[in-house]
Amino acid sequence: MNELVLFTAKLKTDGFNDLLLNFQSHSLSEQLQINSIARRAAIKNNYKPLGYPSLTFLQAHDHDLLEDTVGAVTEICKYGGICVLPSFDPAQLAALITLRLNIYTDPQKPIQVEPKLYAVGEPKPDSPVFVTTNFSLTYFIVSGEIENSGISAWLLVPECEGMSVLTAWAAGKFSGVTIGKFANDIKLDDQVTNREIVIPGFVSQISGELEENMPGWKVHVGPQDAADLESFIKARLN
Q1: DSSP-assigned beta bridge partners for residue 82
Q2: Does residue 61 register a pLDDT over 70?
Q3: CATH class belonging to 116-237
Q4: Whether pLDDT at 9 is above 80
Q5: Which ranges in the chain are annotated with CATH 3.20.20.20?
Q6: Confidence band (pLDDT; 50, 70, 90) for 237?
Q7: Could you confirm whether domain 2-102 is CATH 3.40.30.10?
Q8: Within 13 A of 97's CA, how many CA atoms are on the CB side?
């Protein structure tokens, strides 16, 4: 590391600013230690020569995918910049990308999407309108099933603090009143001419309240499971 520091300082003096640090190690534990020391020095001590992202080439472990994955996870979680894998495996990459996308999220705060009216496909003003919560997993599942059905539609997503349908309903965040208020706030009536909305089957009890808070609208109770949306759409909306 001392030699790398001297070399980095010289390159900086020579006018090179976009650098990658390739730390050499003999084991995963040593690599973790080096990464930790370098990052601590750069951040806590403001040590400029180690303030560049790292580039790590993982060594293959005799085709041991688990060992390779452990090495990549260590790099992702502990200060690695760019991690080059020894082989390509779709299942491994899916797991690593999922980890990378979630490593900086707060586990106590649900991942949520922006509350608004979403277009699924290329909907027209008279296209069907669905409603769900802004919990990201729920949103992506529901929008995906609508898209798989082959139709274009509108998906109304009110503010539910990132809760799932039943959780939001139990907390009073997903009711006929809150949905109706959100639809009014975004001027839903001005954006669509269709006056029929589909609610999740698990909250069928809010249908009457929603019709009271969305005058002129007809409420359809959809399936409880998003996987049944395609058959529901073909049977009820086509």
Answers
A1: 55
A2: no
A3: alpha beta
A4: yes
A5: 2-102
A6: confident
A7: no
A8: 6
Q: Which residues contact 198 (CB under 8 A, 6 or more apart)?
A: 128, 129, 130, 131, 219, 220, 221, 222, 232, 237
Nearest Cα to Cα of residue 187 among 161, 163, 156: 156
Tokens encoding 200? 């999740």
pTM of the model: 0.63
Q: Alpha-carbon distance 5 to 21, whole Å?
A: 9
Higher-confidence residue: 80 or 168?
Answer: 168
Question: For residue 153, what are the β-bridge partners?
Answer: 120
Phi-psi label, residue 187: left if phi above 0, alpha if psi -120 to 50, beta otherwise: left
- The mean pLDDT of 161-189, rounded to a whole number, is 96
- Residue pLDDT, tens place only, 68-110: 899 999 999 998 889 999 888 999 999 999 898 888 777 777 7
Helix/strand/coil for 126: coil
